[in-house]
Known about the structure:
Layout: H1 2-24, E1 29-33, E2 40-46, E3 50-57, E4 65-70, E5 73-76, E6 82-84, E7 90-96, E8 99-108, E9 113-122, E10 125-134, E11 140-145
Antiparallel strand pairs: 1-2, 2-3, 3-4, 4-5, 5-6, 7-8, 8-9, 9-10, 10-11
Amino acid sequence: MEKEETMQNNNLIFIFTVCLLVISCKDERKINLEPQRIDYMYSVTYKKDSILVEKQEQGADVSPLNLYSLGGEYFDKRNDKLFLSTKRDTTFEVENMRFYYEIEIKKDMQKGIYETNIFLINQETKHYLMTYYYDVKYNIIKIDESKAVTFR
């Protein structure tokens, strides 16, 4: 009788341990970032080695930003260019269809966060488009978007 109770207790402990392991192995986390305007929002999905940023806007089909991890940094799947980095500050240009963009990645020393700034290059002038703010673990904290330049 005592042996049966011990086996039942061991079985319950085993089942509890397996359930706990299954629950703790979740490798996806999703958050929503809502801007001041209420006509759109960003959905950010974190997976083990990628980040998906989707803009959800009424009446608009906006292509998502799909980032993959390589060497501790995140790259844009569309063009394999660096997009998020906590390792280095850098600035470079990217051509996308008929537009040229400048990507500026830097650490804001005062705020202690990282930012990726995107500018549209048009006839030797730069127009601010947006900024992604993130922490050392690549958690996107905020996305700022220019209200002056929009694409439809």
